Amino acid sequence: MTKIVIGCFLLFLEVGLLTAQDTILPIWPKEIPNRIDTDEREVKEYSEILRYRLVQEPTIQVFLPAKRSANGKAMLIFPGGGYQFLAYDWEGTDVAKFLNAQGITAIVVKSRLPNSKSLIEAHNVPLQDAQRAMRMTRANATTWNINPNEIGIIGFSAGGHLAATLGTHFNEEVYAKQDRIDDVSARPDFMALVYPVITMKEKTHQGSKNSLLGKNPSQERVEYFSNEMKVSANTPPTFLIHATDDTAVPVENSLLFYNALRENKVLASLFIYPDGGHGFGLGLHNEFLKEWPNQLLTWIGSLETKQ
């Protein structure tokens, strides 16, 4: 813990200008890795929910809670969308506002999507952006009034896959170091995975798999991104929620990850609802599902006594 605090202090001059009014910040202020110049343009569309497609410049959007209620915790949010788009408000900014109301700093990650023609080695790009976003958040801990040892992540659907990938691949060197921020740990302190895609094997969500890995990926790549196979004793404590009747992402995805966590003696809680389908977000339209965000808060609070 001492090393993390000292590291964040030394980084203050480098990142100290990122203040509360600068709510949207580039993940890569210098060179964006794995990017090539094309005529492709980012698409922002609104039809019931706000979606981003073909993200060209990844960002984080920082939501700071009121100072009087801030508790030092933070969560990075990874919206879903099958690695084809980002459900930016439904599984992003709406979640951030809920967390802010509970005193938690929220950071919505607008990561690049592997279906863009502006990318090289597209399968690595989401993890690159996720690692860097976590490092930026931890580097700004002092500025944003965050405890650098209480930074979690939450991901929905394909965003849940990205979150689980970060939680199991946080030590992988997937991009060249750009500055001192990249010396900071990318390990989340805890994870929440909401109807997540976990495996790239039999029970996967085929659309997410095709978008991330292509239609004929190697067995090695399939196993690398099947996160149930990458769980270790260093994987962060994890909260999982899924509906049994999810026809898009089978509930077996959460079961696979939960069992892997148990086998590695990682703290984990799994909540399975009998109905709710897929993409229910905060569950506001379901009498039972609407309780899951409060269950998450209770679970986060319990970590202080269990760790």
UniProtKB/TrEMBL annotation:
Q: Where is the BD-FAE-like domain?
A: 61-261
Keyword set for this entry? Hydrolase
Q: One GO molecular function term?
A: hydrolase activity
> Which Pfam families does the UniProt record give?
BD-FAE (PF20434)
Note the superkingdom of the native organism. Bacteria
* Coiled-coil features, chain-numbered ranges: none
Q: Which InterPro entries match?
A: AB_hydrolase_fold (IPR029058), BD-FAE-like_dom (IPR049492), GDXG_lipolytic_enzyme (IPR050300)
Keyword Hydrolase listed? The answer is yes
- Entry's PANTHER family? AB HYDROLASE SUPERFAMILY PROTEIN C4A8.06C, PEPTIDASE S9 PROLYL OLIGOPEPTIDASE CATALYTIC DOMAIN-CONTAINING PROTEIN
Q: What is this protein called?
A: Esterase
